[in-house]
Amino acid sequence: xxxxxxxxxxxxxxxxxxxxxxxxxxxxxxxxxxxxxxxxxxxxxxxxxxxxxxxxxxxxxxxxxxxxxxxxxxxxxxxxxxxxxxxxxxxxxxxxxxxxxxxxxxxxxxxxxxxxxxxxxxxxxxxxxxxxxxxxxxxxxxxxxxxxxxxxxxxxxxxxxxxxxxxxxxxxxxxxxxxxxxxxxxxxxxxxxxxxxxxxxxxxxxxxxxxxxxxxxxxxxxxxxxxxxxxxxxxxxxxxxxxxxxxxxxxxxxxxxxxxxxxxxxxxxxxxxxx
Length: 275
Hints:
Radius of gyration: 28 Å
Shape: elongated
Number of helices: 11
Number of strands: 5
Order of helices and strands: HHHHHHHHHHEHEEEE
Low-confidence stretches: none
Structural class: alpha+beta
């Protein structure tokens, strides 16, 4: 018996009358990719199984044989785009679908907890026609409105142990667009808002002005700025989610190497009074 390849499976999927019409172009793109490359990426490979399962369900099961919750989940899975094939959302809905089908086969009326149903409703709201339309617009909105903020936040989080995957992608690829839900949750958290506020604030000390250290400055900064210093830059990446976190590069009087210091740790220089 000849070996069945991924190409054979994809061709069968494309030719199947039970393939949802909304997935036909996507299935054709998978087949074309396989024909060009001779392989599928991990994310695309998952969808071969997903599409076959869709076809099997449509071919072998009538709607009246499935509980209402499973019909709802199947409709949701059919709406979910390719990039969500290996997402947490997909994993969750597939898991509760299996749970619901198992419970139905055993004669249970309800097998999902209230928490599961609430989460399912929340996920479903992300895949309505309006939500999907907004999602298609997100890359343009992100680039026009949020890309600069993303760079500022990536610089901040680079100094922490959080969101390192986001940091690497934003810093390493100018074309990267983070998922909308993830980014907006990140963008609106209280730490991010403090960082953005500090970045956008006007510099209290302009380039060329003289400053000295405050009592709150580190010992090293106090030593470097004992005689004051000249501000040579006021646009360094923000690394603290605090008031007065705008960062400056200051050249100490008599020195050749500048120091980096936050606004909250410097003040306007006042020459000492003569005796």
